[in-house]
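> @MW can you paste both from yesterday?
MW: sure, first one:
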Amino acid sequence: MITFYEKLKMLRKSKNITQEQLAGYLDVSPQAVSRWECGTACPDISMLPQIAAFFDITVDELLGVDEQEKQREIDAIVSETSAQIDRNITEQPIRVLREGLSRYPNNDRLLCTLMYALYAASEDEDFCKAHDAEIISIADRIFTYSQNSKCRDEARRLLFRHYCDTDRIPEARIIAEELPEIETCYERNIYWMLDGEERLSCLTDRIADDLRALTWDIWAYSVHADLSTEEKARLEMLYQKIECMVKEKFA
């Protein structure tokens, strides 16, 4: 990947301007521009949008980030950390996601996955208190800046559950009213426009998701209901049977 100083020098030469002319536009010394192009110093991060605007490119392009490479890297980070979080590993994913955000600030997918990691780790009461403000702050950033509807919905879901877990029911109720209804979501409706194998594949995924949701409901009911030993045993058998169906036919 091309470095910042290589990109800056290339852009300046493509515009056929001198270091002094660029320095004049940016209101810095020619020596500063020279150090940037030699790689011995970097501009303050707050100057990057101004530099990018001068060359009519994005900040990512200025930093030499290839868009496809960027998406591959973000996909890999999200995939790896999400799998770890699902296995109740949170410390490592939090560190990796923060490193990713230092490279791609305000990327909504990385922010959403970090929020997920912080929420998952917040089963520890002390951790929950320590990171309460960060969880809420990430949600606010996603609501304010993200155009990705899936990320926005996921942030709402996580914030709703975080408020419930921290006994802030009025706040949770406000978020709940903004959550999408299941019958209007993409996953429940895309089936109608598909045919053949695509439709079967969609139905298979829906059945698997519905069965997983059912097993979670069975588990939650068995935890919270006042059941006899026999009733709990029957629910456990049903739970195991459904899990086997998912693994054998819909995995």
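MW: second:
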Amino acid sequence: MPENQDPVTSAGEQKARITWRCAVCGFEFTGEKPPRGCPVCHSHADEFIPEKERVRLVYDGEPFDVLLINGSTHRAGNTGYMADIAEALLKDRGITYRRFNLAEHHIEYCWCCYSVRAESCTFPCRNQNDDMPAFHHMLAASKAVIVASPINWNSMSVRLKTFLDRTTCMENLYHLEKPGLTEGKVVGILINGHEDGAIKTAMDVFFNFQQLGYVLAPFGIAFRTHGAQFNSKTDREFFRADEQIVHDTRGIVANVIEVMQIGLEERLKGKLVPVSE
């Protein structure tokens, strides 16, 4: 029997056939339930999602407070766990939010129009073929962003880097002397990893947001790592039993909420001098 097939029932009738796709590597499995883990990339079973026709993300225009971004390739991994904690507190506090796992969305690499000429890098972005234009509008509409990233080679994930690269059209508004869409908004940063590189990763992420005019919440960065002396397969169990990761993540969310509710964006509107790379 093929590896990606379920057995038939004793009555000879086939079980419900659902195609499950690993959000990490794209492996597909057909069966009633997803497999216990991915046989290709060895990701956890939680990474499987029902396969469906890709529909481009569209922002509905409804206002909301916080954009919560899980920038990990593993949507249900340890960074996703930090996002889960953040989401739970946002719900508890009655804060309107939108959560997105970037692994579930299609975001193409930046076309680097700016390198041709500054005027070519415009908002709305020239690339309207993927999900990023919707994210552009949600960045403009939300009051704050909480972004979570794993540590990949002492920096952020490639998915998050691609996402942030695609915000260049919003940053470039200041260079073109046009009204900005993001200055005075608040950002909080969550970092998760196996070992070193947390502070560098956080600062790499923050640099992108501060170039867009975001203000880092006081005590606005939290990170948790396990340690190189441990096998990475033990990270999942460690983090889910760790009280510190819960305390720190909830603290970041609470701090973002407090600054956001001051109304900093409105207070600073028209008063800031854009100084952007």
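> thanks! Residues 84 and 273 are 36 Å apart (CA to CA).
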